[in-house]
Amino acid sequence: MTTKKHEAPKNDKKKDDKESGEAHAYTPGLKVKRAMTIDKLRRLPIPGEVLHKIGDKVNYDTKVARTEISGEPEIVKVAMVLGVEAEDMTRYMLKKAGDKVKQGENIAFYTALFGLMKKSVPSPKDGVIESVSEVTGQVIVRGAPIPVEVDAYLPGTIVDVVPREGAVVQTHGAFIQGIFGIGGETHGEIKVVVAGNGDEITPDKIGPDCKGKVLIGGSLVTLDAMKKAAQVGVSAVVVGGVRHQDLTTFTGQEIGVAITGQEEVGITLIITEGFGKMNMSATTFKLLKSFEGYLACVNGATQIRAGVLRPEIIIPHEQKGEEKGDTFAMGMVPGTPVRIIRQPYFGAIGVVDHLPVELQAMESESMVRVLTVKLSDGTTATVPRANVEIIEE
Amino acid sequence: MEVLRHIRITMPALKKSLEDMQYILATDVGSTTTKARFFRKKDGVWRFYVAGEAPTTVEAPYEDVTLGVQNAVREVEELTGHKLLRPDGHGLIMPYDGKQGVDLYCTTSSAGGGLQMMVAGLIKNMTAESANRAALGAGAIVMDVIARDDGRQPYQKIQRIRNLRPDMILFAGGTDGGAGQHVMEIAELIKAAEPKPRLGVSYKLPIVYAGNKTLREDIAKLFKGEFALTSVDNIRPVLEQENTEPARRAVHELFMEHVMSHAPGYNRLMQWTDVPIMPTPAGEGMAMQLIADTFKINVLGVGLGGATTNVYSVVDGRFVRSVSANLGMSYSVTNVMKEAGIPNIMRWIPFKIEEEEVASRLMNKMIRPTTIPQTLEDLMVEHAVAREALRLGLQHHRTIATRLKGVQTQRTISDMFEQAIEDSYVKMMTIDVIAGTGGLLSHAPRRVQPMLILSDAWLPEGVTRMFQDSVFMMPHLGVTSTVYRDAAWSIFDKDCLLRIGTSVAAAGTGKLGEHCMTVELTMPDGTTVKEDMKFGDIKLVPLAEGLEVKAVIHPAKAFDVGEGPGKSKEATVIGGIAGILLDARGRPLYLPEDDAQRRDLLYKWFTSLKLYPEDPLKELVK
Fold it and tell me: Which chain B residue has the Cα nearest residue A9?
């Protein structure tokens, strides 16, 4: 990351006379909440059976719904194997559509020359004959249905049931969103492995006692540390940043489009700030540290396009002090805490100072709507409104 | 041949005759922003009036696109004082009554991921390829193309179809009266895979069958009860002919009936509009055809978006669209890096920067896609990525815009000395106009920037005019043109199509500093400007928008400007906000292998064109 400080464009006092009362934030902030009520809809991909009713207590691994998806089909070229015309094939079929078959069991048989010439076609799998086509000479054998189950993911209470689809699990706890993650849902006890939010997770910080844990780091996790974590059996790593090249090497592929969650790399990884070495926000670090030893439910799945999905860390607890959960507040007013999310002030935290209405020229010469931010070190920065996110704390 | 008149949708009952219309409203419901564009007839001439924008409301908690449309229209109302929305919230006041309302309302949409299709055909390079072109032409994102010879085993194809959640399937195969059994095999494969529609499992997945017509009954019997089947004329009735129009029309109709009607709020929106809702890329494609159709020229256009890159070509009247679904400047920016490779992005940057630093910045842009470059350094990195997205987009387009395969081609003696006849007919020397739209191109701080970015990426040859969408209204005008072509063209010509200028480029290669071409321009005041261009040089000659001058270009022996190596060419070149770009950098473009030399040359080009502010650029390359 460049450390060079760029001078903020000079403000024209006259232009600043007009101020926006409240401005739109373009990037919704990431949630960092100590205590709130969290509802999770646990849904089947296709209709099925819901196994619990409203009021039932569940643990994170309790199955809440199940269904079956149709089995894998297999195409068998019967006419071709028997060496007969497709339209004549039915004469040689031992099974008809709807019949159950076992793997290896003959489904068709052909004999000629008074039994001297015999050909048979065995079923490639256990299943049911789905169709016999006289046009193509193909038979489709459908395998056994595949069961699909959905667990509760969070320990809590069923508060709603969507018939045939799933249920809503409610819990009370801390809720922290990351900016990007890989790997799916997992669980583990929180263990902080660094002293401060600027410290890196290195392999020496990961020991056998980290097995099954959700590790909290500071600014960076190195490639070797990720490898060690996977080797030891760590459930998840939560950290400020990761280097692009390290992530590519670790996952064995370059991340092209941000749709993640399916990676099978041994751990779930959540970064809270961005790519490169980036200090975890002090608030996030402090909050996670205060829950050391608690169970965390973690999901690295991220989707930026078409319905934003951010990775999350949920820490169920009984502590009071409810905070407002789903706010759709996108408004910024002077005093709103914000984080700058692009160069030259990437990662800087401050509060909104002014919201001038007039467009202003950036160093890049782009004419944009801006805001001025009073940074924590006392200086002021002018940045495009699109380059900040509200800190929802 | 597919020209504009063929793809007009049946004219609906309009509220007023075209001659009596005074106001037109068009919207585009994009994946993040809904953009309203308001047009009016003033002194008998149709012009763009004002724009309004608001976030799209397709996702929770709103889940109703009409809210975003109303917000965007409300902004238009506030800016003009012209009342448009009905007080009861049920659409627009129609028609204009002398004080309020609008005479025509139409919209395009790409919200919720646009139209996602799967395509199947018999032979990969024949019917499957034709079906792919038809689906793309209809504005779809093609998720996969299944064919008998696509190199996958039947179980792999089944697995793939099962994992896809398409909005629709286009299925072609066989010439009329030709192959039957193999087409039915593909049909059985699709049926066995039981593909599920993306938007809700409660409705039947639409399939358009555009294959061998003698199989229609068998296909209908096979798919009965499980799919919503529509059969249309064969896409390849004979090998020598491609007939994509009926399939494309069917896709458009089904898009309305099945896909849009399942997206939140679209049923309401459909009642508000005068003409069917159209996928955004289809509207954009119509706008590109409007240029080609009006000037009777060959056009190569691009919509460089945040998630996708759409490339359109109209060459000798044939319209083809390609979409590179994962090449874009925000959501898909890291995919450009993945596809192009970091070294290819780095080659356009004239200052020293670590690869890891560029990669991190692009990853951070992907996870926070709405941020914009504040520093010059960041802007130049984005411009470097744009060149690669455009280059890859055109490379992909050329694989779609091909001659019909499976047709016997007469070969000449000279062809025998080539390895193969080139498949794509999109050749830069035959392109008369390059047109660009999309955020990065439209919002570039200096107008010469999109001109050079497009030149570097696409390497125009000979004399090429360069246009740009002024405030993103090509889709709006495309859909408007289906009803009122003349009004759409008037606005397009006067307010949408910014003339950036003309590129004059010599194809060929040489040594740095060698003579490449001489260009003589007879300026409007009668004076002659003569420019001797050396190989490796680039220069901008200012000529204002609206002016045309005569140019005589004399290329050196090894260079071609359209008439053959060393042969002079006369042409009329148009001015624009940038001017005339004289490009002697060679085709293919010459970039030194040596890193320092490459950076020096880039810096020389950039300063020669005043591409970026002088002092900060100097500071960066120091």
Answer: B374
Among A261, A389, A286, A384, CA closest to A332: A389
User: In whole angstroms, what is the distance from residue B365 CA to residue B361 CA?
Assistant: 6
- Count Cβ neighbours within 10 Å for each residue of B456-491 and write b for 16 or more, e otherwise: bbbbbbbbbbbbbbeebbbbbbbbbbbbbbebbbbb
Do B425 and B492 meet the contact criterion of CB atoms below 8 Å apart? no
Secondary structure (3-state) at B608? helix
Instruction: Point out which residues pair with A37 in neighbouring strands.
Output: A172
Question: Tokens for B353?
Answer: 């920067």
Over 80: is that where the pLDDT of A40 sits?
yes
Set of chain A residues whose Cβ sits within 8 Å of the Cβ of B439 = none
Q: Which of B155, B185, B360 sits opposite A138 (nearest CB)?
A: B185
Q: Could you tell me whether strands B462-469 and B433-437 are parallel, antiparallel, or unpaired per DSSP bridges?
A: parallel
The stretch B193-217 carries a mean pLDDT of: 86
My answer on whether B106 and B123 are in the same domain is: no
Query: Quick one: tokens of A133?
Result: 């086509």
Residues A188 and A289 occupy one common structural domain: yes
Specify burial of residue A218 (Cβ count, 10 A radius: 0-12, 13-18, 19+). Answer: buried
Of B371, B378, B379, B357, give the one whose Cα is nearest residue B446. Answer: B379
In the chain, the amino acid numbered A320 is K
Contacts with B31 from chain A: Cβ below 8 Å: 305-306
Taken in order B74, B78, B83, B88, the sign of the CA dihedral is positive
Q: Is a pLDDT exceeding 80 seen at residue A320?
A: no
What tokens were used for A103? 């793997």
Chain A nearest CA to B186, separation (Å): 10
What pLDDT, in 10s, does the model give residues A186-217? 999 999 999 999 999 999 999 999 999 999 99
pTM: 0.85
Residues B167 and B93 in one domain: no
Same structural domain, A303 and A336: no
Residue in A391, A245, A386, A224 with CA at minimum distance from that of residue B362: A245
Nearest to B309 by CA among B292, B284, B287: B284
Query: In angstroms, what separates the C-alpha of A302 from chain B's closest C-alpha?
Result: 9
pLDDT band, very low/low/confident/very high, at B8 (cuts 50, 70, 90): very low
| Residue-range definition of the domain harbouring residue A225 | 179-310
Q: Which residues of B touch A383 (CB under 8 A)?
A: 374
Q: How far is A280 from chain B (nearest CA, A)?
A: 15
Q: Do B189 and A75 touch (CB under 8 A)?
A: yes
Question: A8 exposed, middle or buried (CB, 10 Å; 0-12, 13-18, 19+)?
Answer: buried
Percent of chain B scored above 70 by pLDDT? Answer: 93
Query: Within this chain, do residues B102 and B203 fall inside the same structural domain, yes or no?
Result: no
Amino acid letter, residue A304: I
